[in-house]
Design a protein that fits this description.
4 helices, mainly alpha
């Protein structure tokens, strides 16, 4: 199991989510820019994104076709 996600500011969370959506593969960029492991990125996105957005992101990282560009975060 991955280490817990450290406490992050809302701005840091937004930047990590943007990095995860923009880069392919996203994990190397997130690790380089924010210091989070792949497991921590998955935990963070699962917590912050809607279930459908997380499903789309996960499919995208696995090389499957993506249904939408960038769904909204949870409120």
């Amino acid at each position: 199991m991955a280490k817990p996600v450290p406490r992050l500011t809302p701005d840091e969370i937004e930047r990590i989510i943007a990095t995860a959506w923009d880069d392919r593969p996203p994990f190397a960029a997130v690790l380089r820019q924010h210091g989070l492991s792949p497991g921590q990125v998955v935990q963070l996105l699962k917590r912050e994104l809607t279930p459908n957005a997380f499903k789309i992101w996960k499919a995208r990282t696995q090389g499957q076709p993506m249904a939408a560009a960038r769904p909204a975060r949870r409120s």
